[in-house]
Amino acid sequence: MEQNVVLEMRHIYKNFPGVKALSNVDFTLRKGEIHALMGENGAGKSTLIKVLTGVEEFETGEIRIQGKEGTIINRSPQDAQKNGISTVYQEVNLCPNLSVSENLFIGREPRKLGLIDWGTMNKESKKILEELDIHIDVTKRLDNYSLALQQMIAIARAVAMDCKVLILDEPTSSLDDSEVEKLFVLMERLQKKGVGIIFVTHFLEQVYRVCNRITVLRNGTLVGEYTVEDLPRVQLVAKMMGKDFDDLADIKEAHKKEEGGKKEVLIEAKGLGHTGTIKPYDVIINKGEVVGLTGLLGSGRSELVRTIYGADKPDSGELKFKGQKLLVNAPLDAIHAGMAYLPEDRKAEGIIADLSVRENIIIALQAKRGMFHLINRADQEKFADEYIAKLQVKTASRETPIKQLSGGNQQKVIIGRWLLTNPDFLILDEPTRGIDIGTKTEIQKLVLDLADQGMTVMFISSEIEEMIRTCSRMLVLRDGAKVGELGEEELTQNQIMKAIAGGAGE
Questions:
Q1: H or E element in which residue 63 lies
Q2: Domains 5-241 and 288-338+423-500 share a fold
Q3: 183-197, 207-221, 250-264: which range is least confident on average?
Q4: Does the pLDDT at position 411 exceed 80?
C-alpha cells in the first residue's frame, strides 16, 4: 500500500442468486480525501459498502487498511469498527431517548468502581464535540436536537472511535441547504485531521462542492476513478448512465402525429411543490402527450408526480386538471378525477403478493367505485381475462397468486389494473425496470398506443434510450428542482445529458 492510502479494495466479486452485484471492482481511498462513490440504482454502491463493513460477505478479492498487516475480512460491522471503518447512514442510527453523551459512548462507557462515571463521560463528550466546533449541552436527550445536529453527533461518535475511514451514506438527503453546508464544514475539518471519507450521494452539486475524487460504478462494474477537476459534470452523467444505446428499432416512427390545431391542456401546475422533496414548479401537459421526466436518481422525478397525484400532498401552488382547479388531498381524489399512478417500487407499492392476478387487476376500479358498489364475480373475471389477453400476461390462470409471476408479468398486471379505471392521465414510474428487453419493448409500444388513443402519459425511466423512443417532450429535474424542458427535436443523448448535468464543464 502506498503511504498516503488508508483503504484498498481489489478485484471484489459479489453475487446474489441470479445477479452479479459486483464484478472485479477496485476502490482506493487516500488519507484526508473526500471521495464520492457514484452510480445509479443497481450500480453496486450499497453492495460495495456492505462488503466493506461486514454486512455482506464477498466471494473473492482483497481489502487492505492502513496499519493492518496483510488483508482484512470484516465479518460484521463490529469487525469493521475495530479495523477503523465507521458508517453514518441516511437514517440516523442513534438512540433518541438517550442523552448526547450516552449516544457518543454507548457500549464503551467510562466506569468507576463498576458504575458509569457520568462526570468523565459528559466531560469527554463535550471535548469530542468542541473539537469539531459543535457546542451543545451533552446531557440533553438526543431528540432535543435537529436532524442535522443528530447527523453530526453520529459522525462525532464515529470519529471518537478513532476511525480511519468514515462512510457517509446519503447523509444530506433529509437536510436543508444551510444544514448541508454545516455538514460540509465538519467534513472538511475531519479531512484536515487525515480521515478518509467515502461520500455516497446522488447530488451532483454536492459532489463538486466538497469532493476530491469520484469513483463511478455501473451495473456492478467499475467505470473508473477520476479527480473532480478532470471529470466535467456532463461526462460524469454519461459514465453513470452509460452511453451504450441498444439497437431496437425506433418504435416512435409509426406514431408520428401531424402537428397543427390547438392543443388541449390536461394538466396545469403553478408553483406546485412539497417542502423537503420537490421545489415549486410550473408545468403544462397536453392531452395525448407522452411527457418524460429525466434526471439522476434523487433529482425529484418521483417526487414531482407524487405531488400531482396527492401521494405527497403539495404545500404550495395550485393544480388544474381538465381546466378546473383540483384539490388532491389523497390518491383516491386523484383516481376519482381520472388519474392513475404506477409506482416505482413494484413489490412494496404495486402488487399485493398474496392476492390472485384477478384480484390485483380489479382492486383500483373497486376503490374508485367504493365499498358499497362491489364488482360482481362475473365482471371481475371478465375484466381480468380482458387485460390478461390484451397485455399478453403469462399466467397459469387468472386465479394464480401474482407473486408466482415473473417481474415483467407482474408489471403488466399492474398496468392492466390502472387501464381498467380508464384514466385520462397515466403516470408510469420506472415501468420497465428489472424486466426483459422483449417486455420492455411491448410496454413502450403500449404507451405510444395509449397516447394515440388520447390518453396522456407521464413516463419516468433511468434509461435515456427508452425515454427518447417513447417521449414527445421531457422535463429535466436536478437536485429537487425542475430546471428545464426539452422538445422532441432536442431529444438526443447529448442534449439530455447536458441538461441533466447542468452547471459548469459542459
A1: strand 60-65
A2: yes
A3: 250-264
A4: yes
Cα separation, 413 vs 363, in Å, equals: 11
Q: What digits encode the pLDDT tens for the residues 15-42?
A: 987 678 899 999 999 999 999 999 876 6
Question: What order of strands is seen across the sheet that includes strand 165-169?
Answer: 85-88, 165-169, 196-200, 34-38, 213-218, 221-227
Q: For residues 395 and 431, give the distance between their C-alpha atoms in angstroms, rounded to a whole number.
A: 19
Q: How far apart are CA 226 and CA 239, in angstroms?
A: 11
Using an 8 Å Cβ cutoff, are 125 and 165 in contact?
no
E strand intervals along 66-188: 85-88, 111-112, 115-116, 165-169
Tell me whether residue 74 is exposed, middle or buried, using C-beta atoms within 10 angstroms of its C-beta: 0 to 12, 13 to 18, 19 or more.
buried
d(CA 83, CA 162): 10
Buried b (16+ CB within 10 A) or exposed e, 255-282: eeeeeeeeeeebbbbeebbbeeebbbbe
- Provide the 3-class DSSP secondary structure of residue 28: strand
Region 475-486: mean pLDDT is 90
d(CA 245, CA 111): 63
**95-125 pLDDT per residue, tens:** 989 999 999 998 889 999 889 999 999 999 9
**CA separation for the pair 283, 458 (Å, rounded):** 12
Residue 24, class by beta-carbon neighbours within 10 Å (0-12 exposed, 13-18 middle, 19+ buried)?
middle
Query: What residues does 355 pair with on adjacent strands?
Result: none
- pTM for the structure as a whole: 0.60
What average pLDDT does the chain have? 86
The domains of the chain are located at: 5-241, 288-338+423-500, 348-421
pLDDT of residue 345: 72
pLDDT of residue 248: 41
- Alpha-carbon distance of 498 to 472, in angstroms, equals 18
131 contact partners, CB below 8 Å, separation of at least 6? none
How crowded is residue 2: how many other Cβ atoms within 10 Å of its Cβ? 10
What is the pLDDT confidence band of residue 154, given thresholds at 50, 70 and 90? Answer: confident
Domain 5-241, architecture per CATH: 3-Layer(aba) Sandwich (3.40)
Distance CA 287, CA 264 (A): 6
Beta strand residue intervals within 219-322, DSSP E: 221-227, 265-274, 278-286, 290-294, 316-321
* Planar angle of CA 140, 142, 144, nearest 5 degrees: 70
pLDDT digits (tens, 9 = 90+) for 264-320: 999 999 999 998 889 999 999 999 999 999 888 778 888 999 999 988 889 899 999
Second CATH level (architecture) for the domain 288-338+423-500: 3-Layer(aba) Sandwich (3.40)
